[in-house]
Design a protein that fits this description.
Chain lengths: ~110, ~290
């Protein structure tokens, strides 16, 4: 079985992602359906006496998977907007990506319109 | 500046000369339009046209409402999903769009749409075949012969997963360094195909999606059977790339970009499979109890 760490850690991670998601709408994340559903699910399956409960492990696995989904999408969108979302780059920007600069020529290069 | 004016006049004359109604077909010799500063711009995204997202329970399952309008699939079918958790996750996807709707971040919605519309018209058997096809060219079964560190890395990381799958399903998988790939026994294929047949169509769409992302049947089974986490499965799927990155360096806009996308897709697929095959799991438990 996959080692997932403590459920509390997953729960905190999920809350953090929900806060990120709802920064867009401006509403508090506690009013969202996702928050209510997650609270319900985490409370209902809070078992303390059993050492290994299959169903509980399954739920924790799903929660961890969902956390991974939200986090990966957030990071992916950030990189997409930084590097990919704006169409083709100009020559200056392309050069800047690899740490280069276009040569400067005070009187122009002679072929500008 | 003058040159561009001349060009404009030339273009105008060309437009005046062409026959009426023939604007689209007039691609004869004439002045070409001036080259744009940017050759490619990404297509504009739709604006977020709704304020509130809510969930209602209908006859066929759970439905999503965007401001009193029901969400529909691209083929204009009513969007209904079988599980509440999935509906909540899809609603969260729609609710978390900021100003524009970024469809490429909505993997769960995409998977649900694919299952509802079934645009490729594939049945259960075809989905199973599409997934089982990856078994012959499974990533974790292809090994390299050099360099020695990578050989050792592949042996240490991939052998335990293959061993787990062999014990779990009682089959023989093995690995190979030949370019023809490993020879998978026919019985292995039969066992795995009959195992996949126990999933419903929705879950199979998800399984096929994950298999085609990870390029590996074994890793997908590990993910579906809760043996591997998403992060582990993605890392194992990109083992050689990770090794080369350690040697040659990481490029953020290519490698990291791809890792996050792959993780997001794999997580969405795995979650989709788990949520869609859940109802049968609950029934199973009730029968036992």
């Amino acid at each position: 079985m996959a080692a997932l760490g403590s459920p509390l850690r997953t729960w905190r991670g999920l809350l953090r992602e929900l806060r990120y998601l709802n920064a867009a709408t401006g509403r508090p994340y506690r009013h969202t359906a996702a928050y209510r559903y997650l609270v319900k699910a985490f409370r209902a399956h809070r078992v303390t006496s059993e050492k290994l409960c299959r169903a509980r492990h399954e739920l924790h696995f799903q929660a961890a998977t969902y956390l991974c989904l939200l986090r990966s999408i957030r990071e992916h969108v950030a990189l997409h907007q930084e590097f990919h979302g704006k169409g083709e780059r100009s020559a200056e920007e392309s050069a800047g990506l690899v740490g280069l600069k276009l040569p400067q020529q005070p009187g122009g290069k002679g072929w500008e319109p | 500046m003058w040159r561009s004016c001349l060009r404009l006049r030339g273009g105008g004359r060309h437009l005046l000369n062409c026959p009426r109604g023939g604007l689209t077909a007039s691609e004869g010799p004439g002045p070409k339009p001036p080259a744009r500063a940017r050759a490619y711009a990404p297509p504009a995204e739709r604006k977020r046209f709704y304020q509130n997202v809510s969930i209602t329970q209908g006859e066929g399952g759970f439905e999503i409402n965007l401001d009193h309008r029901k969400l529909r699939t691209p083929q204009a079918k009513l969007f209904t999903v079988p599980s509440e958790a999935l509906a909540v996750a899809v609603a969260t996807e729609w609710d978390s769009q900021q100003d524009t709707i970024k469809a490429y971040t909505m993997h769960l919605t995409t998977l649900c749409n694919t299952s509802l519309d079934n645009p490729t018209q594939r049945g259960k058997d075809q989905l199973i075949q599409a997934a089982a096809k990856f078994l012959d060219t499974d990533t974790v079964c292809y090994r390299v012969e050099e360099p020695e560190t990578l050989v050792e890395l592949q042996r240490n990381e991939w052998d335990p997963v293959i061993g787990w799958a062999e014990r779990r399903y009682g089959v023989k998988i093995g690995s190979s360094t030949s370019i023809m790939g490993p020879s998978i026994p026919a019985r292995t294929r039969e066992v795995l195909v009959s195992h996949l047949a126990s999933y419903n169509t929705w879950a199979l769409q998800g399984i096929e999606f994950v298999v085609s992302q990870l390029k590996s049947m074994v890793l997908t089974l590990g993910l579906i059977d809760l043996h591997l986490t998403v992060e582990q499965a993605v890392l194992l799927s990109r083992l050689e790339e990770t090794f080369q990155i350690q040697k040659w360096g990481n490029v953020e806009w290519a490698h990291d970009y791809e890792v996050w996308d792959l993780q997001a897709r794999t997580a969405a697929g795995a979650l989709f499979v788990h949520l869609c095959s859940e109802s049968s799991a609950v029934k199973h438990k009730l029968l036992q109890g």
